[in-house]
TrEMBL record:
This is Probable GTP-binding protein EngB. Its cofactor is Mg(2+). The keyword Cell division applies. PROSITE patterns: G_ENGB. It comes from Brotocaccenecus cirricatena. The lineage of its organism: Bacteria, Bacillati, Bacillota, Clostridia, Eubacteriales.
């Protein structure tokens, strides 16, 4: 039975590893640089306007947010990274939380890394991709803000993303626009296919 993304509820924010959810349901984990449009992508998937936070002060909160979809699957929202104005203390807190998250076996069923379709992925994007890889889970890469590209720029930019992240044949790169809704169905079916639901 397909997942009903209209049935989504916020469960909790985890600021410490003790609060990570471990109840056996599959978890689809979203990560991305601050301001890449992660909240907008999540809102688009869930057919909501202001469900996941959009446009708040970038990088202000270091917490893992859990949304339960259709009572079956968690959408796990990792705190954004790479925001220059974050204090060292906040960055360290982020690092410790992520270390715990990625080190714990079996937490992630599927990784969704959101990058900016306009730019070469940053060193932080590459690191995050490798962390996902390191868990052994499948990873889907979403190239967001596609609407900001000229048609002629799309293919070269996607290739740059593939090359920089060293994507392999089986890896999925979904061109996406949270603004326009482009790529939504492709992303939903990539998720379903990889979760086997
Ligand atoms: N043109 C365009 N703008 C987008 C798109 N997705 C997001 N934005 C804009 O990008 C800005 C950042 O979006 P957010 O969804 O808040 O980004 P975020 O990654 O969740 O940011 P943090 O809260 O800092 O982690 C907002 O002004 C959005 O309206 C898109 O596909 N196209």
């Amino acid at each position: 039975m397909t997942i009903n993304y209209n049935k989504a509820e916020f469960i909790r924010s985890a600021v410490r590893p003790e609060a990570f959810i471990r109840d056996g349901r599959p978890q689809v984990t979203f990560a991305g640089r601050s301001n890449v449009g992660k909240s907008s992508v999540i809102n688009r998937l869930l057919n909501r306007k202001n469900f996941a936070r959009v446009g708040a002060t970038p990088g202000k909160t270091t917490q893992v947010n859990y949304f339960l979809i259709d009572n079956r699957v968690y959408l796990t929202d990792l705190p954004g990274y790479g925001y220059a104005k974050v204090s060292k203390e906040e960055r360290d807190r982020w690092g410790r939380l992520m270390e715990s998250y990625f080190q714990e076996p079996g937490l992630i069923s599927l990784g969704v890394l959101i990058v900016d379709a306009r730019h070469k992925p940053t060193a932080d994007d590459v690191t995050m991709f490798q962390w996902f890889r390191g868990t052994g889970c499948p990873v889907v890469v979403v190239a967001n803000k596609l609407d900001k590209l000229k048609k002629s720029e799309i293919e070269p930019n996607l290739q740059l993303i593939r090359d920089t992240l060293e994507l392999e044949e089986q890896d999925c790169l979904v061109p996406f626009s949270a603004e326009k809704g482009t790529g939504k169905n492709e992303l939903l079916s990539a998720i379903s296919q990889r979760l086997g639901v």
